[in-house]
């Protein structure tokens, strides 16, 4: 078949189960490429603890350059006890992940929290609340706010005190709001903006700016919610939400809460997007050193991250959907990795899960 397009993907397998799950996602991308006539060119580089071991730094210049020169990045996970003793700037999480996000301008973090019908009993929420499925998209601002604000120690009224500043510009709020509204237009056209505008000035600007952006999207319903109420509503009435947009720190917490509602950490993908089509795609889970290399890791979160990559960075919507449909088919057929296994289903390993998803794409 004639190749329709050639796409360059930097692959960072990382540490722990990173190589296990990314290998399967690459296999699935190859299947989709073959079926639809695309050439996915993979450039594998080291990032995380493995890069520290090889080069003495978690994000070597060569890796960052390769990322900058590609169309998208597929990442497994980084970190593990072996590197926990290192100073913060050399640790895989801060030294590789945070640096990648800030160097590449990845300001929008998209985290879908989806419950597949076949896995609805995995949710810790009562069935009468959760129903048989759930689909929320959390859009978190990723390069601003308190994690990047001024910080330090000073002499206070009662001795030494520490401070961290939460600051947002209208520009930063506007661009993340646009991402959320654009996403909502492709979904159920409902955005909930989460802030603490009853207390924080930065949240007042957040609310005002999001409300302004909403005027460009008259079809999308916008509501605002204080973060404390949102944390409650997520477990009380999760079906209220379609797209959530929020700041870096609130999004950090709310997106973890949303993912726990689904009950299966090995199933959830994420995308971190820059302006334009460039993005980095990774599962939300960590490097799970306890099961690394044992053919036990669930590769679905990474495979679904590859599906997001096709949709958001390459605009290959049908191809992305083909992966999602294949995952649903395999789950409906009763195949499960150990983390999502329940009695009456068929337990399989990482590699077989990847292969079955490929087979379902080709079926
Ligand atoms: P973790 O997500 O790695 O593991 C938590 C639990 O979930 C473990 O029991 C693990 O076995 C299980 N698990 C995770 N992913 C799974 C999968 N795909 N299939 C089956 N089971 C899975 O979190 P942790 O134990 O807190 O962290 C381990 C290491 O990962 C730490 O060094 C941490 O800093 C790092 N980490 C990295 C990232 C990242 O790279 N984005 C994110 C979180 C944690």
Automatic annotation (TrEMBL):
This entry's Enzyme Commission designation comes to 1.1.1.85
Residue stretches making up the Isopropylmalate dehydrogenase-like domain: 8-357
Q: Which UniProt keywords apply?
A: Amino-acid biosynthesis, Branched-chain amino acid biosynthesis, Cytoplasm, Leucine biosynthesis, Magnesium, Manganese, Metal-binding, NAD, Oxidoreductase
Gene3D superfamilies associated with the record: Isopropylmalate Dehydrogenase (3.40.718.10)
Q: Where does this protein hold Mg(2+)? A: 228, 252, 256
Q: Where in the cell is it found?
A: Cytoplasm
Cite the position(s) of the site with description Important for catalysis.
Answer: 147, 196
GO biological-process terms attached to the record: L-leucine biosynthetic process
Comment on bound cofactor: Binds 1 Mg(2+) or Mn(2+) ion per subunit.
Q: Which family does it belong to?
A: Belongs to the isocitrate and isopropylmalate dehydrogenases family. LeuB type 1 subfamily.
Q: How does this chain assemble?
A: Homodimer.
> What job does the chain carry out?
Catalyzes the oxidation of 3-carboxy-2-hydroxy-4-methylpentanoate (3-isopropylmalate) to 3-carboxy-4-methyl-2-oxopentanoate. The product decarboxylates to 4-methyl-2 oxopentanoate.
Q: What is this protein called?
A: 3-isopropylmalate dehydrogenase
Organism, by scientific name, is Anaerotignum faecicola
Q: What is the lineage of its organism?
A: Bacteria, Bacillati, Bacillota, Clostridia, Lachnospirales
Question: Which gene produces this protein?
Answer: leuB
